[in-house]
Design brief:
Layout: E1 6-7, E2 14-15, E3 23-25, E4 32-36, E5 39-41, E6 45-48, E7 57-75, H1 80-87, E8 92-97, H2 103-116, E9 122-123, H3 138-154, E10 160-182, E11 185-188
Parallel strand pairs: 6-10
Antiparallel strand pairs: 1-2, 3-4, 4-5, 6-9, 7-8, 7-10, 10-11
Helix pairs in contact: 2-3
Bound molecules: zinc ion.
Length: 193
């Protein structure tokens, strides 16, 4: 167990991050504070305007512009190869859940957001906004994304045998999406989800 005595780089408040936290919110000035081996930093965190209800909390996502290039996609038949080409033709925005959630929930969210490509409107931080700590590192975000890409391709109706692709991720950013509690999990307050 690591014991850390840390202070917010912005307001000097004492911070008590959990062992796996990579970005937390300062309880005093509410800034996003990232925790790495190299020390603490103040990353930009972009809040998203809620659609509908008042959010209970905000959930962290790693957001990228992504470009997937299919290098080899071998199947036993079917014409879904063209669907794959069309789906990945242009760059897409990807959103990877970074708070502590189970793998299935995370995969479903990545896939839904990848397919829906919702228009998210940025806003300045609401006065009382509280966000969940991020525990997923950007390195793990890439791994999860690769898993989802394989899932999407395997679900096409053409008996995929092998898949090789190149994944380019640009403009890494931390976004905070509004949510309300829904049973054990969360419901995002984003249109079309
Ligand atoms: Zn602070």
């Amino acid at each position: 167990m690591k014991l850390l005595l840390l202070r917010c780089p912005k307001c000097n408040q004492a911070l008590a991050p959990g062992q796996d936290d990579v970005v937390i919110q300062c309880p005093n000035c509410r800034a996003a504070v990232s925790i790495t081996e190299g020390g603490l930093a103040l990353p930009a965190a972009q809040y998203v305007r809620p659609a509908g209800a008042e959010p209970a909390a905000w959930l962290p996502f790693w957001v990228y512009r992504s470009k997937v290039t299919m290098q080899a996609r071998k199947t036993q038949g079917g014409r879904a190869g063209q669907d794959a080409e069309t789906f990945w033709a242009g760059p897409r925005t990807v959103y990877v859940p970074a708070w502590r959630c189970d793998l299935q929930e995370a995969r479903d969210l990545v896939q839904n957001l990848l397919e829906e490509q919702p228009h998210l409107e940025a806003m300045t931080r609401p006065e009382e906004a509280v966000f969940e700590p991020a525990v997923l590192t950007p390195q793990d975000a890439r791994k999860l994304l690769e898993l989802v890409i394989v899932t999407i391709e395997a679900e096409r109706n053409d008996w995929m045998e092998t898949l090789a692709f190149d994944l380019r991720l640009d403009s890494e950013a931390l976004w905070l999406l509004p949510a309300v509690r829904d049973g054990d999990g969360w419901q995002l307050l984003v249109k079309n989800l």
